Amino acid sequence: MSSFVASHVSSESIACHECDCINRLPPLESAGTVRCRRCDAALFRNIPDSVERSLVLSVAALILFILSLSFPLLIFKLQGQEQHASLITGVVTLYQQGFWELAFLVLMCSMVVPLLRILAGLYLFAPLYFGRVPHGFARLLPLFIMLTPWAMTEVFLLGVIVAYVKLIDLATIVIGLSSWTFIAMIVVTSWATTCIDSRRLWRVAGEIETPEPPEQAHARISCHSCSLILPQAEAAGGHAACPRCHSSMHHRKPESVARTWAFLLAALICYIPANLLPIMTVISFGEGEPDTIISGVKALIAAEMYPVAALVFIASIFVPVLKIGILSYLLVSVQTRSRWRPRERTMLYRMTEAVGRWSMLDIFMISILAGLVKLGAIATIAPNLGAVFFAAVVILTMVAAFTFDPRLIWDMSDERAR
């Protein structure tokens, strides 16, 4: 797929959601990703037949999702006993063991949100395919896009792989049919996401007649959901909500710095017990002891499972620290009104958005192990309190990244240009 950079001259304008730069877009015929001319953020993907592709892939994803719920994911065999685990087994086990917070989180991120995205896609794209606009289209599309980072099926699959590797020396593990349909569903849903052409879809929602937007950032306001641009004076005169998607319009996210600091500090507080307290207990033939995140990595290294140990270390230790560090640096740079390398700082922010969800690996792995290994004194795996604190760290750092407004990074450069 090609990549295009927006230009200065065109008949249509779009505001970058990361740097607030006005990009003027020429008509595009071929497929490709259009990027901001200032910060290189992806503005949208130009997909000529996006509705047809998205509809077909959404139907296929729904079928595969139903099949994934209908068969075992993994089968655990030890001492003549068998334990079958499906997608829902880990959720039920976590709830039964008193960890309802983890059960709810795993249920939402691995099943409920992915299913909602599939159903929302069908609701949006099926009528469009037949030339009709579905009721509530402009309100549902931003929600559909917002749910994307919370649908963590690929992270769940990685948790399945890590759980499989940890158990193959303990017992016989059989890969169930659901594992293959689940992998197929991930491929199809990821493909469907890449086929969404937001610019084309917002045109369906209706063109809004607006004056030519001014280049100066202080003189305009842009919708963070649909990128519609209005002059600041017009927005203040009666457009508290976006006239196209009805989202609240703000020059910058309200109290972005204070909210981001609050979530980061909460994550930092939770990070301490998340690493000091055990996250799970493994009992094999009546023997076992609780494992912290660090001791789990050490055990994988001792078992010479170096790739898995590296994966768990990166996802569970390195990434949370990296996110907290980067977001703290970005907040300080904004508060000190730094003009240093705004493009590179924006890229750092983009990285925190992309990697944060992968820290859910440990939580998904624990849910799979707890649901699969339930043979009493022979073999049992149970979650511990450290897993709750670690889940809180993952969620808080993700929310912190969402509340931070990267356009603040560019405000000093815009002020200097005036």
Oligomer: single chain
Mean pLDDT: 82
Major β-sheet profile: 3 strands, mixed
Instruction: Tell me the domain tally.
Output: 1
In DSSP terms (H or I, runs of 4 or more residues), the helix count works out at: 15
Helix vs. strand class: alpha+beta
The succession of helices and strands, N to C, reads: EEEEEHEEHHHHEHHEEHHEEHHHHEHH
Give Rg in angstroms: 24 Å
| Helicity, as a percent range | 55-70%
- Beta percentage is 5-15%
Q: If strands are numbered along the chain, what order do they take across the biggest sheet?
A: 1-4-5
Give the overall shape. Answer: globular
**pLDDT under 50 segments (min length 5)?**
6-11, 234-239
Span from first to last CA? 37 Å
Write up what this structure looks like.
56% of the residues lie in helices and 13% in strands. The chain has 418 residues and is an alpha+beta fold. The chain has 15 helices and 13 strands. It is globular, with a radius of gyration of 24 Å. The strands form five sheets. The chain has a three-stranded mixed β-sheet with strand order 1-4-5. It has a three-stranded antiparallel β-sheet with strand order 7-6-8. It has a three-stranded antiparallel β-sheet with strand order 12-11-13. The protein has one domain (50-198, 254-417).
